[in-house]
Amino acid sequence: xxxxxxxxxxxxxxxxxxxxxxxxxxxxxxxxxxxxxxxxxxxxxxxxxxxxxxxxxxxxxxxxxxxxxxxxxxxxxxxxxxxxxxxxxxxxxxxxxxxxxxxxxxxxxxxxxxxxxxxxxxxxxxxxxxxxxxxxxxxxxxxxxxxxxxxxxxxxxxxxxxxxxxxxxxxxxxxxxxxxxxxxxxxxxxxxxxxxxxxxxxxxxxxxxxxxxxxxxxxxxxxxxxxxxxxxxxxxxxxxxxxxxxxxxxxxxxxxxxxxxxxxxxxxxxxxxxxxxxxxxxxxxxxxxxxx
Length: 292
Description:
By secondary structure, this protein is of the alpha/beta class. The protein has seven helices and eleven strands. Helix 3 (about 125-145) crosses helix 5.
């Protein structure tokens, strides 16, 4: 039984509505061989269940799981999704596979990122040095295979939930145009995310904003008071820097809603609002197939 099949089997028992597609998408490791700084940590990942959600921890080989839409509905856009979990673990279903499925069904190539966890038991990693490097590498890898996946090089964004939102936001601060002299062809690609979606993100009070920051979609619930206040301040920073940004704060909604069938009311529509924002911002115009 492969990795995705194990997740699918767990979901079928704990959350019948949370089904993965029939196709078993293969993980793509960010580095072909040994992940930097993980030479002596190649032990198996752990899969656990908490509050009817599937959690992944003990990650030492970061990877992407792709969700590729049919060519006839492809928009040319791609999004790398970083699930949350406080850097202790990764909540892979409602903050990973389920939003990826939703986006894929609407023509967006989605990739679920498993990144190294700074606060896992006996972790040897840090957010700034390792988890951020995983996100940057993921952006480079996707950009290096744009032709293969039918993606526009200037329509590759990041979407993160909670701790994953912190990671997505950091990637929107720390980027480069590629390492020209790198031996690895992937490292020659830019790590710039063309847009960022920060969903109840952690750590935004220390985010830096400049005129080079990518457009931002910010979202939280009002009951998640500290994060809602912090992203409101972050929104003002984008406004002052002249960076396009939008913000949504939902009444009577707390942390951790992700994408799941149990969401009701206005918060259940947040993915649609995000999709509309992407469209209005010009990221869903597929110039690869539509020259009109």
